[in-house]
N-succinyl-L,L-diaminopimelate aminotransferase
Amino acid sequence: MTAILAPESLLMTKDSMNPLLKTLQAYPFERLRTLLAGITPPAKELIDFSIGEPRHPAPAIVSEAIIEHLHGLAEYPKVIGDLRLRQAIADWATRRFALPADFLDPERHVIPANGSREALFSIAQAVLPPCQTPKPLVLLPNPFYQIYEGAALLAGAEPYYLNCAASGQPDFAALNESVWARTALLYVNSPHNPTGATLSLETLGWLIAKARQHGFLLAADECYSELYPEGQAPAGILEAAAATGSLAQVLAFHSLSKRSSIPGARSGFVAGDADILKAFVRYRTYLGAATPPFIQAAAIAAWQDEQHVKHTRTDYARKFAAAHDILGAVLPVETPAGGFYLWPQVGDGEAFVRALYEAEHVRCLPGAYLARDAHGIHPGQDRVRIALVGSLEDCVEGLQRIRHFLDSHPISTL
């Protein structure tokens, strides 16, 4: 039999792949590896403050639920998820955000997600109009979680960077109406990565009104919502939507990765507008984004328990207190309203990270890798992100090394 060969013009090459892939920028940690390549640090154990990966022990109730439900390996999971999980999520959100008892319907307003990351990315692919001229705008805070930018670019949209003001959040009210008119999707992040700043209930309500006025989707990334100084729980988009009596144009994205210190489980949820979620489920059915049954069982246990979350908040509070005690005299550090990051000004962020790594074998992330030069400003250039995700002992060791480094390398000399 004679083989049928494809014309040379049809053979797949890197130049014939999706051209939008070329618009993606290197991920922050790839850039960090390049920055530190060739440096030989001292023979001390690495303290890694660069990545926001919680390293607290997983709650026992989660581990036990996974083991108990491993028989679920024999089942194909459903994209829509187990109703018991959706009910547990709806119950948690109703308690957490003081929602009316019948406001969040688990059968219409909630779907599980494989962590917030995949859902934040794929929602853009599902809702943005293709081949539109001019390109629709996707608004995102600057600095930002790079998934927002990548989602916009691969959907053929144009990212529009909203520089964070001194408050740590964008000044949304200063935005021109012509920009709002072109907007198809707005990502907000509260508490914000990396500044830790939150959005007030009033601001969230104002943004909901804008979304409905101009017909865009308001996607609220709230994956850090449960990490806050005790007694200072930040407002959420569902709470703001409840004040209007409607979930129209609103989606909230949550995750157990930070709340319950189980990033490896890849478990979260999306809640909000029923019509958008119905279309999103159709998209995800083709994508195959279904959560394994044993992970869903673990998630039910996690959403139903608050005790482990309180312990987690206490642990982070101790680490922020240690940061103030150790660094306060040499580096201005602030306890954020949410999250687990320090975001100090250090002059040249890249130079600081290289010199610190070379001197102390401590790895941080340059703020420049989390932001873009926009509207004549680069809001991350003079900062670094320090993720206090390890044990208290490891964090104290790393902070003491930073203090030792700063005692001999004042910021002004870097």
Notes: The first strand starts at residue 47 and ends at 48. The CA atoms of residues 1 and 353 lie 62 Å apart.
